[in-house]
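Have a close read of this protein, sequence plus structure tokens, and explain what the tokens say about the fold. Thanks in advance:
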Amino acid sequence: MSKLFISYSRTDEAFVRRLAAHLDSLGVEIWLDVDNIPAGTKWSTAIQQGLRTCDLMLLILSPDSMASNNVEDEWQYYLDEKKPIIPILYQPADIHFQLRRIQYIDFHKQDYDRALEQLHKELSRQKITLKPLSAPPLVKDPATTPKPIAPKTSKVKFPLPLPEWINIPAGRVTLEENAGTYDIAPFAIAKYPVINEQYQAFIDDGGYQEDRWWKGLDQREQAPKEPSWNTPNHPRETVNWYEAMAFCRWLAFKTKLPITLPTEMQWQWAAVGDTGWNYPYGKTFETSKSNTIESGINQTTPVNQYPQGASPFGVLDMSGNVWEWTLTEYKNPDSNDNARVVRGGSWFRSQGLARAAYRHYSNPNHRRHRLGFRVVCSTTLSLLSAQAL
């Protein structure tokens, strides 16, 4: 069986996981770094082995992938070895001149299903055996809307208290600190941060003992750290980035959905859309709409305590309470090379840091009583069909 190597920037992981899930359902064997590098294996050695053993590369084109030296090393290797590359345009980018001669498949302007059809045909042309596309993928993207509106919440009932999802339409986000402008594809985001009750289910299901949730991560925790406040509907804090990633993988497996941490671009778009507001609820700060140091509470609060602080889409707790981990690396010479962007401020910090556009970072191994997370699903939920736990 032919094997596909997916080369991408970690910023684009949500899209990559969605695409990989569809290809897996078609019978394609995928090599993806976060899934195929065993714990304890040297990263560069595993990547080299993956490049050698795979027959074809899917190269995800985006501004971050085109700026990545690691991604360039991967596709250069394939060019040198005269192995086929299929570029996948995810976000508009300044494409390297050596790649411009290769026709890409446009997942940016085209409907996802239509682009997937084209990829199916191209893979078949490359002599890769595929199951037929007899039915559309699990979810179709809704039409984009020019202004943020608050869609209805999609609730899926499980024995476990899973996220209440909010569908978020496509948009465009400009980051502070001259960090760029990005187009955002439709996705779904959890209405609230992950709460203690949800995280406890991960622990009880052997989440810290199961190797597969930690595969490829630079660090593995052997046991959870007790939260500072363990009320069931408070946000789970004192989890580091690696623990948040392991939880996402566990939940994705249990629900059969492409669940991961949000990119900071997705997070910001879900927080304010294109309203131009400083906070999810408006232009000016209001103590009654979020839990920051100004509230004087000096600890976390239930995730549904501030309904008036909802974003334009209806997402709650995006200002204050706990900082939220994102997938995005913080690219700054003054930060740790592995630092990850955190967003939203916390109960411990002031209103200025709880602005929707404020960019902060933390080392991924930090476990603090002001660090939590929420999850996203890279598909919208209008046609959702999921399996119960």
Q: What stands out?
A: Residues 135-159, 382-389 have pLDDT under 50 and may be disordered. The radius of gyration is 20 Å. The first strand starts at residue 3 and ends at 7.
